[in-house]
Amino acid sequence: MSDSIRIKGARQNNLKNLDLELPLGELIVVTGVSGSGKSSLAFDTVYAEGQRRYVETFSPYARQFLDRMDRPAVERIEGIPPAIAIDQTNPVRSSRSTVGTMTELNDHLKLLFARTAELYCRGCGKRVRKDTPDGIYAELLARLTGGRVIVTFDVPVPKRMSTDEIRAELEKQGYTRIHSADDARVEVIQDRLRVEPANRGRLIEALETALRLGRGRVAVYPLNEAREAEAPLKFSADLHCADCDIAYAEPNQSLFSFNSPVGACETCRGFGRTMGIDYRLVIPDESLSLQDGAIRAFSGKVGSECQRDLLRYARARGVPVDVPWRELSEEHRRWVIEGEGKGWERAWYGVAKYFEYLESKSYKMHVRVLLSKYRSYDTCKACGGARLKPDALLWRVGTLDDSDAVIERHARFRPVGSRLPEEAFLNLPGLSLHDVMLLPLSRLQTFFARVHLPAPLDEAAEVLLEGIRARLRYLCQVGLGYLTLDRQSRTLSGGEVQRINLTTALGTSLVNTLFVLDEPSIGLHPRDIGRINEVMLRLRDAGNSLLVVEHDPQVMLAADRIIDIGPGPGEHGGRIVFNGKPAQLLESDSLTARYLTGRRKVAAERTPRPVPERWLEVLGAAEHNLKNIDVRIPLNRLVCLTGVSGSGKSTLLQDVLYNALASRKGHPAEQPGAHRAIVGDELIDDVVLVDQSPIGKTARSNPASYVGAFDAIRKAFAQAPEAIARGYTAGTFSFNAGNGRCPTCAGTGFEHVEMQFLSDVYLRCPDCDGTRYRPELLEVKLAPSAGVDADPKSIADVLAMTVTEACAFFRDYPEIIRGLEPLQAVGLGYVTLGQPVPTLSGGEAQRLKLAGHLAESAGKRNRKKLLFLFDEPTTGLHFEDVRVLLGAFERLLAEGHSLLVIEHNLDVIAASDWLIDLGPEGGDGGGELLFAGPPAEIVHCERSHTGAALRDYGAVVGGPRSPALSPLAEKAEPRAVAEAPSRYAPDHAIRIHGAREHNLKNIDVRIPREKLTVITGLSGSGKSTIAFDILFNEGQRRYLESLNAYARQFVQPAARPDVDAIYGIPPTVAIEQRTSRGGRKSTVATMTELYHFLRLLFVKLGVQYCPDCQVPIEAQSPEAILAHILRHHRGERVQLLAPLVVARKGYYTDLAKWAAGKGFTELRVDGERLPTANWPRLDRYKEHDIDLPVGELPVEPQHEEALRTLLKRALEYGKGAVRLLAAGGERLFSTERACPSCHRSFPELDPRLFSYNSKHGWCEECYGTGELLIGFDPSQTGEEAVWHELDGETRPCPACRGKRLNPTALAVRFHGRSIDAYTALSVEQALDLFDALQLEGREREVARDILPELRARLAFLKEVGLGYLSLDRAAPTLSGGEAQRIRLAAQLGSNLQGVCYVMDEPTIGLHPRDNRMLLDTLARLEGKGNTIVVVEHDEDTIRRAEHVIDLGPGAGVRGGQVVAAGTVAELLANPDSVTGRYLASPLRHPLRGRRREPADQWLRLRGANLHNLKNVDVAFALGRLNCVTGVSGSGKSSLVRGVLQPNLKRLLDGRGRAELSHCRALDGWQTVDRVLEVDQTPIGKTPRSCPATYIGFWDDIRKLFAGTEEARLRGYGAGRFSFNTADGRCPGCEGQGMKKIEMSFLPDVTVPCELCHGARFTPETLAVRYKGRSVGEVLAMSVDEAVEFFAPVHKVHHALKLLQDVGLGYLTLGQPSPTLSGGEAQRIKLVSELAKARPDLKGRKPPHTVYVLDEPTVGLHMADVEKLIRVLHQLVDLGNTVVLIEHNLDLMAEADHLIDLGPEGGDGGGQIVAAGTPEQVAACDTHTGRVLRAFLAERRPTAEEAAT
Length: 1844
What we know:
- This protein is an alpha/beta fold.
- Helix content is 34%, strand content 18%.
- The chain contains 67 helices and 65 strands.
- Helix 25 runs antiparallel to helix 30 (814-825) and helix 31 (842-858) packs parallel to helix 32 (879-894).
């Protein structure tokens, strides 16, 4: 594995062709001045490539949602691992996302609560637990020792029986004593006895029996002296409070998740809040009266009618309409809001009723927009904001002492609707889940450090507890102890988000991952920097690499390596100034080093300002954690507000001060935070909040226009003599409007080419060459100012100037200088005037805003006195940029403004005039005013962390600064190293601890990284569970956590597996086994995604020809269209329609609204006219064509001008296209695309035009199949499986000649070829063509991402030996091996390093020769530093593995344990390993000692010619075991499944009268009775289908239950025990045992039915028992258990024994069919046939069946292969013929007749190269012969074995 990332030729943004090596496993800091190229290197180059390559491994569907990064401008990057960005952006806007979900603490907590929480009854507050006979006995002994008791249980009375009948049946069973009875139940006495130790056995037996017969409930009546029963003691074996008779559900993790429909509150759906109306927003100004518009919602056109109603009814009811709202009485206010409650007519309906009406129309977009203005988000009344269902809050963790240590008892959350008395509630121990959510993290850390959980604690709970403690520790370490888990993530600052993500990354335990961080020190007080250094170093030491963009000195000095980029910003940057160790940096002469060592200072020496005279005061600030503080802020000073994270700074500045001042100054924001008063606000004119949010979103927004300089520049150009002469105005020189800008690019300077799933391409506009203007305008030039040595410049030249150059050029233009000079002052002199604003960094954007304010005030005489509020303005700024920023601050102060700055930068703090320090800690420990005064005095404040930091920094104002190393440089590195853990070498392995998923038995597994590991074992032993359900799912899930929430809803990560912990896991990629090879429309090109890129290439670069005239299409003028209409439609009445929507999905409500606003009354939708006023709800998921009817008129010469005007309007609306509706039909005209010969117009090229899965592209005769299919029509689109199964002859479509596409698509050409000509090439030919393809200019730029994708995919297909396949080869014609290798090639082409590839039996369908090729490919993949985990039974693969894990010892419930793990040699030596035994002592062949005699009868096939078969003649032995083999693609499936089986079926069905296909003749079929293909298709589609029902023995089992005494007692027949009928099955799940819960905001969740708990039947049905087992328990039995259980029932036992014989003993009888693998389904079908073919047919001859099986060994372990061989021999012994397609050498060696096809695959195959017994084939020199020869030599029986 490479130990570094190698970057060659990085040119992203301003990077200057950098070559760079980044060592892996290090913490690397990238620094440099703002705009020097740091983010371009770290994020746009390194992260983009690492993320892009991993996302490539997802499906095309998933990738469209995954924000795949653009391919960076770099020559190449090698050795890059998957990358995760931890930046400041927070894409989550859902209130469902909280600190708890972001940190995964919620996941840990719900597992902990499900495992360890204790339940307390909502009725009485007592603990609820499951009672056992022993526990009940102990309680009775403690309470009633020596007393007499009666033990009773209830028997319900069925509807069809009377109480007397029940008593009679009970007497038959010996129960004669009844305690009480009524119509509903009979209470039976089980026993009457004395409670004493001597009676222990009798009492426990009575309790056990009573609990069993009473369905888990028992009552114990104490008897008094008179032997009368007193109040009973009730007990329950379930979670049931016997005293309150309340039953509770079993806890599972979903119950404690508000993101699961199982646990989420049903009212608020887990949001904790419900939407309502905020009447403060409806009535914002209480000084207004009703008639003056107090009700804001009634102002304007929309509510004018309601306003009139209000005033009319108010006057009628005597409600004053001219009195301010605040002076109205409460009664009158209520009347206005609530109305009179009499409906809409003849009474005032009320404001509330008006909003109710709007809510009913909220499906309309404009109504939703209107409602959003008045929305309130109120705490949910059902759950009290807890988000969970009430029962989830009854579970508690910890003791009373534990909770008392962190929260007052009365402050704990009391669930809504709780009926508990106050005293009982206060005495409840511990905390509920919502209590935990509401505690600050620091207090939560204390709670979990001391929490007492119920003993005995299992290992899983310990691991969970440790995981919770570790995450809380990390979060508190990085200064987030003040947050709560319930805090919504969208309210977090960028710094908080980044620190949470950083700790999440540490908690996920990913390894081999590159983490790219963007200034993790943001928002951190210097006190906390050392803590975040420790977190990053831990992440590094876990085996990851970190690339950090950072300016903080402490972080820099803690790094392993520093890369300093510069030397200047923008074009002056992009070079590596320094690359080395921190100590070496301090000795260098770079700008960064000069600041770090004190040789250069940030703040210049200045005289302190005098004591301020004017103050702004905030009194009684008490929002969030502020402790009712009074703060005085001096005006016209630089005031710094500081304090540790969470101390209350942002709350004071934004929530209280800014919101309050904004309201007073007339531009209200949000509701001001709690405070008493603001004093002195009249001393300022306004307040301005300057943040780092983006300024503009378009490329037209630039720095010159933002500061107003561009207006002056345009005026200067307009006054040039040349401009005056031509009549140009200032507007002519605008690229936003006017006629001076380039009409082609509309003033942007580039052409935007959308590339769908690739990064979009931006090309320099070919007409203006990127200048944005028409050439004539560029002829106007402006001379430079006097004394400036420069040529005259055009407007485009000026936009290309930097600010510094422009200031010199325009120094004689005061208006221009007034705008540009502030840009220079804030350090943006390097930015060009025309640089698009979206390309600026956050720091640059903030400084541009500052420059805007400076420029605004520069030209004003009466300047406003503003208060500027800044939130960490030094974010993203280098020391040099901070120095420039302080200079800009000085200018603002000089102009009379005031500044209040939240800041942690010690240079800014030291340079301030006044310092306000909040603290002393964060959260509950903060919110106090620690210090207010000059910064020099804070060092004397003992409680202030800021004072301590300033002392350490050595930069107190006026203090000396060391000329060599600052105190920071001396202190920071030792401190960072001291806090960081020592570097250790982690175990180079993936470790899975305590895996219990499915049948795994709490096992620990170790998988070495960067090696080939094979997981093997018996079928059903748990191999796929480890590999896919745990390893792959968890590796992918952890990586997906780094993606945005929008993406994750489409690429839904699997649920967290049932496992204690997984350590050392890298990101994972799965290459799963798929038995389906796709339908007729799936080809090699579509399977490998090559076709996606070809389609895109043709859309963007194809030249369209007219399919009729074969000439290139070109543009035509509107006049030509008009002439055509006049010539061909004269005298007709025509209508012109403008196409607005072409084949797009959606509702299009807004489009209808737009059309109505333009005066159009209707739109034509899919040919039907619909009104725009009452727009119907369209089908959202259907593609619609929507046209705008522009006008209608007769075509006559006198109407020519009207027609011209109408045509012009239609072309404008249709963007160059118009539809003409005339008597002869409909025709499209286009000004862009038309045939110059026949004038036919064409729509714009669309990728769907080249798709044969779309109606836009497919041939209209064959619907994209390329074949004429009998009985097929387009309504079957998408049902490829149906098309694949269609019987009958197929022949190439005559319309498209098998090319699948319509003539329009086939007429588009790229470099002279149509798209079908490219797909007709073989992989090798296509690779040669694209390698030789040389493109120039625009073509090269557009295809820059497409060609590398095509070349890479083709190269990998060739590498895995598939160079012979043609790209249009249909998927059904591929062999299994070819399909598998195509999927492998598609996944492995991403060229990643450090990931874990998980594969499911990649050798399926592979001949031993091809298998070795595959193993060589895997070895190359492993050589790149990847981990390969393969689930496999193949002997070659196992022997090649470096590590083998053998699971067993059995299958199903008998499996799930690690039997052996280690090298192959260790496996062979392990006596417990079944795999080891078979490898050491393999099967001997022939297995039965000798082969059958040669066959007397043969089935002879002549002239087989399907696909690549070369007119072959072949014979199959009847009554024998035949095996067809050969290399992949040699024609085996074509011969057996394509020719033999369908032709034999036709002959048998037609009794010899049938037309044969793809062969000349088929002889010898007369002795055959039927042919049956036992394939791997599913045996059922619903959970109700299972092995027991498919094979048919379930009917017999139902009869057994119906025959029991209890069933007869209840009157149940066999139908009662069917889960397919309504009588006995569970009504909740209809007999499926599971329920699918669908919720719109979450993926569907399948959960066990809450009524039957997965048992499928009603409790009454389950009460009937056969041999002690209920019908539900029988369904849950494994086949192995059932074989013994039903041993006396011969008919059932026979079928079960057959299942066991084919290796399916691990399956349960009721296992849902959809969960079975293809191999399992195939073997169940075999058993079904064997069960029918029993030899006891009473003398009748069994039918002679030819069984066709395609690779039945799929998924079979060696031990199961032996069982399968014996079953196949059994079928042959019954007189049947078996024809196998197989590569397994054991099966080949067992065949009576072996047929070998070859010699190669594809066109090189299709011939019979050998046939005969295995020994005869082994003697031939073929691929099979050579392998088989060596195999038989090893497996020949010894002399002793032969003798036995």
